[in-house]
Amino acid sequence: MVEEMKEFSSLTCQKAGTREHDRVQRARILIVGLGGLGAPAALHLAAAGVGTLGLVEFDDVEISNLHRQILYRTPDLGRPKVRVAAERLTALYPGVSLKCFAERLSTQNVPKIFPEFDFIIDGTDRVASKYLVNDGAVLCGVPFSHAGIMGFQGQTMTVFPGQSACVRCLFPTPPPAGEVPTCQEAGIIGALAGSIGLLQAVEALKYLLGAGELLTDRLLIYDALATGWRTVRVSRNRRCPLCGDQPTIRQLVSADSADEPCG
Question: b/e map of 195-210 (b: 16 or more CB within 10 Å)?
Fold first, then answer.
């Protein structure tokens, strides 16, 4: 059965050739946050035949999660998300190897976890967590997909450390605490979260295959109310505190004061 599932998942990459398919099977992708963004990304990356998926999540399943976090069901309420996700992914795609981290992302564990992977998907829902992913990925030299959603709008970009703009190139410091509306205040459309999460999975596969153009130096914004996409061109900021010519951030720092939900 496992071999049959491996053969089935390989259909995603058959046109790319055996070498590219092997590259995907050997790949190690880390998904930080298994919510509205990370859940669909995990499903599709496992289905695509990615060899190893890392899952970082400390939270338990709540009823408010179910409309957008498609890995979970009502019987899962109160259970750790990472455990439920691992069970579901293994049941659907037995060929995938999972490395689970049932812990909150922190300045202590980022240097231990990030270097183990080829690409990172930021599926977090807090401003401070997004800055931590950005800073950790840049300092560790690991490419990643950044994304955020709010109400009917979503955005995503890919960061290639040392080559493309990072999140701090656009927004050098986190917004003040309370400035970003919470999920309850702004609301989140489940289908929108899924759409952006799938784009992140596609970016990861493009990176692994060396195919197409990554969303580097481009912020892709989707307005679901207007049913329109627009791309904002960005570039590395020479005065970026993290990746600029004279960086002031040389080690990870906590940004808990800005730790408000944002997606």
Answer: bbbebbbbbbbbbbbe
Q: Give me the number of domains the chain comprises.
A: 1
As given in the structure block, the two tokens for residue 208 are 């692994």
Side-chain-side CA neighbours of 23 within 13 Å: the count stands at: 17
**pLDDT by 10-residue block (mean), the chain, 263 residues:** 45 58 91 97 96 97 94 97 98 95 96 98 94 97 96 95 96 82 72 95 96 96 95 95 94 60 35
User: Is residue 56 one of the residues assigned to a domain?
Assistant: yes
What pLDDT is recorded for position 259?
A: 36
Give me 105's structure tokens. 């992302």
Q: Residue 98 in contact with residue 89, Cβ under 8 Å?
A: yes
CATH no. for residue 33? 3.40.50.720
In a domain, 99, yes or no: yes
Between CA 245 and CA 178 the distance in angstroms is: 31
User: What pLDDT does residue 17 have?
Assistant: 65
What gap in Å lies between CA 72 and CA 22, rounded to an integer? Answer: 30
Domain assignment present for 263 = no
Containing structural domain, residue 163: 2-258
Q: Taking the alpha carbons of 249, 252, 253, 254 in that order, is the dihedral positive or negative? A: positive
